[in-house]
């Protein structure tokens, strides 16, 4: 397990270094943002003034949450439709993040991708207006505690997993250009009133043609703990759509464990890194245990999610399935799934 933890630490430190070295290098000035917007006038999202946003949010009174690039506030359109307004902080974001959001979500229409209803670009005051998701993020649902346990059953968790997978498959194959998200994690999965999952936060997304198997990247992007190894070091392989597959696998495991994949506060040290611990349970055909499941039917669903996740987090990108195959695996029979190879670095290497 130590080798795995060391690898995770290397990924985290490497990302911190690249983020701080290159993070502010690509700032875009307002003229470039305006040039972009003038070329995308055919997009559906409306353009709002900053004054409109203040009316919409009652002067940003109700804060829903905070992310890496700004804060999200609850608002309401003049027609009464509830919305979420993401106000981008100039000190944290740049034109890249704003343009990525408008360029990607502005042209994407899928039940499992959040809808962008509008935006604001008034000098350096930039904001994005989304459909409101009353059940918040998946992160708040699955990272339960004794005082606030996860209320969703395994059937609903399976539906959510399939929905996220379909959304990513659409981004990879259903658009004119392939969209690579590069930040799939529970925090970026929003849930509507029926707990239908919606992929959000496209600030780190990249476009590429569908026949392009390798993506060039000047710096690592993503969130430590979900970043595919090849995004940090090309020694593991080339960056491609398979990098999103890896992130999805790590998300799936957190849905099963209902905890962060790395947790130093667990009772047994063998469970600190949940992905490796759960792989050993599956590989030795043990019950999943550790409070993961209760009934036999639930065990089957949880085991399916685990096996699919372990295929997704294979160290070599070529060994991971594409998202179309992932959807088929999630919707197919559990007994048809093969146990994947060990996706972790051996302590002897």
From TrEMBL:
Positions with a binding annotation for ATP: 86
Compartments in which it is found: Membrane
Alphabetical keyword list: ATP-binding, Glycoprotein, Kinase, Membrane, Nucleotide-binding, Serine/threonine-protein kinase, Signal, Transferase, Transmembrane, Transmembrane helix
Statement: the UniProt record of this protein carries the keyword Lipid metabolism: no
Lipid bilayer topology: Single-pass type I membrane protein
Signal peptide (from-to): 1-23
Xref: InterPro entries: Kinase-like_dom_sf (IPR011009), LRK10/LRL21-25-like (IPR045874), Prot_kinase_dom (IPR000719), Protein_kinase_ATP_BS (IPR017441), Ser/Thr_kinase_AS (IPR008271)
A GO CC annotation given for this chain: membrane
Molecular function terms from GO: ATP binding; protein serine/threonine kinase activity
Stretches assigned to coiled coil: none
One protein family per Pfam: Pkinase
Family listed: Belongs to the protein kinase superfamily.
Name the UniProt record assigns to this protein: Protein kinase domain-containing protein
